[in-house]
C-alpha cells in the first residue's frame, strides 16, 4: 500500500473507530438482541418472544395505525403548504424577503420541549387561547386532550407548524435553480401564472419535493416528542401513541430491550419501504 494511502487511513482511523463503536456496532447488536428474550436472566434466543409478538400485539398495531394516520394526513398537507410558502417567498413582489425566510425557518430552531409546552398550553381546556377564541365566536370549548381525534389533530398541527417552513426553504432553493428564461418564454406565449405553476414549476420541482417527502416520511416514522409531551405520552388511552413512543415504552419503561429492538427494525423497514414507494411513484417515465 502506498505511503500516501496509509497516511490517509491513519488520519481517518480515529473517526472510523468512533463510527464503528457508536454507530455500526449498536446497529448490529440491536439486531442480535431482537432475537433474544430479554425478560429473563440470562437472555436467551427466542424468535417468538419478539418478532412473533409483533404479529398479534394490539398495542403495536395501534401505534402503527396512529403513525400511518399522521403520515397520510400530515405529510401531504405539510408539503403542499411548504410549496405554496416557497412560491410566496420567491416572489419579487414580497418585501423584506430575508426576514420572512428567517421567520418561516425559525420553528425548527425552537427547542422541542419549549414548543411542545406552548402547544399544550394553547390547547388547554380551561385557559388555552384556542378555546378562548372558540368561546368568543359562540361555540363550546373543546377538550382537546380527552378525545383521541382532537388530540391527533393537535399533533398534526404541531408537527406541520414546526416543519413546514423547513421544507419550504428546501423547495425555495429548488425554485431559485429554475432558469428565468423558462418563465419568460412561457409569458411570451401568453401562458398564465397558474398554468406556469402547474406545468412548469411543479414538474421541475418534483425531485426536490420527493426529497422533502422522503425526509418527512422518515421523520414521521420516528415521531416521539410531540405525542410524548403534548398529549402526555400518547394519550388519551393510547390514541396518539406512535411507533417511536411505543418503542420508548417497551425499551425504557418495560425494559424489554429485545422487543424494542424488533420494533426499531420494523420502523426502519417501513420507512425504507414507504420512501422507495414514493420514489417509484414519482419517477420520471421513460
Summarize the model shown.
The chain has helices at residues 3-33, 47-54, 58-90, 97-109, 112-122, 129-136, 148-176, 180-188, 193-221, 225-229, 243-253, 257-281, and strands at residues 36-37, 44-45. With 286 residues, it is mostly helical. The chain has a two-stranded antiparallel ribbon with strand order 1-2.
Keywords:
MetI-like fold; mainly alpha; 286 residues; 12 helices; two-stranded antiparallel sheet
Just give the CATH class: Mainly Alpha
Kindly state the mean pLDDT as a whole number?
91
Structural Rg: 24 Å
**Can you say what the CATH homologous superfamily is?**
MetI-like
Order of helical and strand elements: HEEHHHHHHHHHHH
What is the CATH architecture annotation? Orthogonal Bundle
Characterize the overall form.
Answer: globular
Helix content: over 70%
CATH fold field value: MetI-like fold
Number of domains: 1
What can you tell me about this protein's structure?
This protein is mainly α and 286 residues long. Helix content is 74%, strand content 1%. The chain has a single domain (56-280), classed as Orthogonal Bundle (MetI-like fold), CATH 1.10.3720. The protein has helices at residues 3-33, 47-54, 58-90, 97-109, 112-122, 129-136, 148-176, 180-188, 193-221, 225-229, 243-253, 257-281, and strands at 36-37, 44-45. α3 runs parallel beside α7. Pfam families: BPD_transp_1 (PF00528). The chain crosses the membrane at residues 12-35, 63-87, 99-123, 150-175, 196-218, 257-281. It comes from Rhizobium sophoriradicis. This is Sugar ABC transporter permease.
Strand and helix layout:
Blueprint: H1 3-33, E1 36-37, E2 44-45, H2 47-54, H3 58-90, H4 97-109, H5 112-122, H6 129-136, H7 148-176, H8 180-188, H9 193-221, H10 225-229, H11 243-253, H12 257-281
Helix pairs in contact: 2-12, 3-7, 3-9, 3-11, 4-7, 7-9, 9-12, 11-12
Amino acid at each position: 500500500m502506498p505511503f500516501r494511502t496509509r497516511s490517509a487511513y491513519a488520519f481517518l482511523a480515529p473517526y472510523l473507530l468512533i463510527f464503528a463503536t457508536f454507530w455500526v456496532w449498536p446497529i448490529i447488536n440491536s439486531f442480535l438482541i431482537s432475537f433474544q428474550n430479554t425478560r429473563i436472566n440470562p437472555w436467551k434466543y427466542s424468535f417468538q418472544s419478539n418478532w412473533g409478538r409483533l404479529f398479534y400485539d394490539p398495542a403495536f398495531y395501534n401505534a402503527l395505525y396512529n403513525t400511518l394516520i399522521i403520515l397520510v394526513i400530515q405529510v401531504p398537507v405539510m408539503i403542499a403548504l411548504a410549496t405554496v410558502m416557497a412560491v410566496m417567498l420567491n416572489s419579487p413582489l414580497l418585501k423584506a424577503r430575508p426576514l420572512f425566510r428567517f421567520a418561516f425557518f425559525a420553528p425548527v430552531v425552537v427547542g422541542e420541549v419549549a414548543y411542545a409546552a406552548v402547544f399544550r398550553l394553547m390547547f388547554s381546556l380551561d385557559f388555552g387561547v384556542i378555546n378562548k377564541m372558540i368561546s368568543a365566536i359562540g361555540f363550546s370549548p373543546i377538550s382537546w386532550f380527552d378525545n383521541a381525534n382532537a388530540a391527533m389533530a393537535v399533533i398534526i398541527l404541531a408537527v406541520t407548524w414546526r416543519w413546514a417552513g423547513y421544507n419550504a426553504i428546501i423547495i425555495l432553493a429548488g425554485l431559485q435553480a429554475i432558469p428565468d428564461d423558462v418563465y419568460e418564454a412561457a409569458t411570451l406565449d401568453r401562458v398564465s401564472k397558474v398554468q406556469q405553476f402547474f406545468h412548469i414549476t411543479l414538474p421541475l420541482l418534483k425531485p426536490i419535493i420527493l426529497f422533502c417527502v422522503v425526509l418527512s416520511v422518515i421523520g414521521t416514522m420516528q415521531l416521539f416528542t410531540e405525542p410524548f409531551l403534548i398529549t402526555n405520552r400518547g394519550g388519551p388511552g393510547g390514541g396518539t401513541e406512535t411507533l417511536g413512543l411505543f418503542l420508548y415504552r417497551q425499551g425504557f419503561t418495560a425494559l424489554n430491550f429485545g422487543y424494542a429492538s424488533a420494533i426499531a427494525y420494523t420502523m426502519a423497514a417501513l420507512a425504507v419501504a414507504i420512501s422507495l414507494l414514493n420514489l417509484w411513484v414519482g419517477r420520471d417515465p421513460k
